[in-house]
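Input (structure):
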């Protein structure tokens, strides 16, 4: 801060500022002499599915881990609801983390716990609810993800799609303000992947959550990409939505998105319809 108490990065300067939940300004992150993130700035909006896409090695995972506070960074600002993360006390950071839900790649369920126990785990960690209250909340979120009679099953008895639903239920059980999903469709067949995509989108809109999804699945981009941030070599190479990604002439984006003949045909059909 300067002598007047002002932060060097002025946050929320646009008229829609207080509708925005997560803001990133000029984020830099290095490992040794290797700079991985090279000055990324973007906004992740409340009530929208925000996708981070890019090739392997583009910096997606490091970016997500910086947002979650798992990595320290050399320069830049990350703010949640106008609160600069690096300026929070440890207690404030813990409170913030209790407002974050996470869907891990591969679901990351505890094998020795039932589905109900897996979903209840964050409540035991972050809430002071009674066992009766926790059971009611578990019942509610399992019903919301269409798993009404799955409480006593073990993860090994659940299909891949069911495990993803359990992971989503666990992520929202604490009624989070922010939801982070790391490759939520990995290992799923295309039909199930679309169902999971739409479930995440529905929950995002229903509970007005700020959802950030790390993905390389182009079906997800086309299905739920309300906000898309494309990273390449640690830089934000492009930003837009599922509507504008078909129209962009940015070669970096088109080379990535339309690497298959099928996607090239989809883009051509879209352009012809718009003409």
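Output (sequence):
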């Amino acid at each position: 801060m300067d002598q007047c108490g002002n932060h060097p990065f002025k946050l929320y300067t646009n008229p829609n500022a207080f509708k925005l939940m997560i803001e990133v300004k000029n984020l830099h992150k290095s490992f040794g002499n290797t700079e991985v993130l090279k000055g990324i700035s973007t906004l992740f909006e409340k009530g929208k599915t925000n996708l981070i896409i890019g090739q392997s090695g583009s910096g997606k995972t490091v970016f997500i881990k910086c947002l979650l506070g798992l990595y320290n960074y050399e320069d830049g600002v990350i703010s949640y609801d106008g609160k600069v993360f690096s300026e929070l006390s440890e207690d404030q950071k813990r409170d913030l983390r209790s407002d974050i839900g996470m869907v891990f790649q591969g679901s990351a369920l505890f094998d020795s716990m039932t589905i109900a126990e897996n979903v209840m785990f964050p409540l035991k960690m972050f809430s002071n609810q009674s066992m009766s209250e926790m059971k009611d909340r578990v019942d509610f979120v399992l019903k919301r993800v269409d798993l009404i009679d799955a409480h006593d099953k073990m993860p090994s008895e659940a299909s891949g799609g069911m495990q993803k639903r359990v992971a989503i239920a666990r992520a929202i059980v604490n009624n989070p303000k922010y939801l982070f999903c790391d490759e939520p469709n990995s290992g799923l067949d295309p039909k199930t992947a679309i169902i999971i995509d739409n479930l995440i989108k529905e929950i995002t809109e229903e509970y007005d959550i700020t959802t950030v999804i790390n993905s390389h699945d182009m079906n997800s981009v086309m299905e739920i990409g309300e906000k898309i941030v494309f990273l390449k070599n640690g830089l934000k190479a492009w930003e837009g939505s599922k509507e504008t990604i078909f129209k962009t002439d940015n070669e970096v984006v088109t080379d990535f998105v339309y690497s298959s003949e099928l996607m090239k045909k989809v883009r051509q059909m879209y352009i012809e319809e718009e003409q």
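Notes: The chain has a mean pLDDT of 87. The two ends are 51 Å apart (CA to CA).
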